[in-house]
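User: Um, what's this?
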Amino acid sequence: MIVRTPAGDVRGEPIATGVPFRGIPYAAAPEGALRFAEPVPAPSWTGVRDAREAGPTAPQRHREIPGLDLTALVGPGWRPGAEYLTVDVWTPDPGATGLPVLVFVHGGAFLGGTGSAPVYDGTAFTRGGAVLVTVQYRLGVEGFLPLEGGATNLGLRDQLAALRWVQDSIAAFGGDPGNVTLFGESAGAVSVACLLGSPLATGLFRRAVVQSGHANMVRGRAELDRLAKVVAENLGVEPRAEAFRALTAEQLLGAQDAVLRPGAAPDLRDDEGRDRSHGLSPFLPLVGDDVLPVHPGQAIRNGAGADVDLIAGTCREEMLLYFAPTGILDTLTEEQAVDMLSATHPDAAGVLRAYGLGERRPGDVLVDAMTDLVFRDGVEELVESHQGRTFRYEFEWRSPRLGACHGVELPFVFDSLPAAASLVGDDAPAELAREVNAAWTRFAATGSPGWPEDTTTRLG
């Protein structure tokens, strides 16, 4: 099936519930002078562009947690190719009009991931009468490292460019550009929260869903300048965009790998003595440019995004994803728990004592404390700060191996359980997946997921 977009015609392959179109460029390839530069619209093309296969992905390493295969959530890793600033579009009917649109921003610690990973299959959303768009954006050094002479917050600028593409082009796929829901998980949720507080995102989406992320996982210029200096030293160049443009993506990934090694990153704690990523990633959005002129949390408290309906929530045992597969929960000592949290929090011992250190198994204490510090506390603050309609959830269904861990809700949101057996097992409740997917689809269509505002709905 062929759809005519403003940039050119694209061909998709019909399935039972609609038509997916993959790898459609929303911005020009970030190569040459466009590396470390703001995205510009993709050039138009003649003829019909084949959009039946997934395209390239942003330069990245395949990220793994020992003992756990996350390919279903993060994809296979780097599929090389310059033209990776693309979207996948799943539509029930390109000939329709006025369908609700959901735009998904994938997670991956701002280091990896792809919108074409198996779990992000759009079949269930199209079956429910919605258009799904999944977005790829620049990552790591190329997406979130500010350099002299280069643009800042490039990954967020890419997402803004994708949202502008949706405004211009989604009607060709049956979608309503006036009814766009932006949603994301983990780093994608941080991105959504940041854009909720960004003046550049005004009018680009009507609703938002923030899954296990929030507006506090950002950095100041001083921390990111320290990171840029260390990355540049590893490359043997100055921390300037011109110097980085002369290097290959593989060279930049090598320098990125170097700062990800334990103890190799610079001190990224802020003036309060906290590393806002809690060690999950050195690369976070920057506060202090035109994308985020003020802290996004403060902007939201001041009324930014008040006209946007919001769902925000967490999984009950987020940090189990990082600790359960390794077996560390059974062996961690009290001293080790304090040492681990001390790297990112100025009063680790005090925090852990408040969670029962000395009375409970240290591994369980650390999971509970870090679930709150890294995820739940920030989401609670976001919910309390948002001036518009707000719905809160907590995902409680426990997978046999990993409990209610970070990311476990994703195959339920997309109703794609078979793709995520490594995470949820073989007997995950299909009825719950249908309910959660229907709630997200209903929210996109009506502004309500089907539960009351200002209460926490338990899912699972």
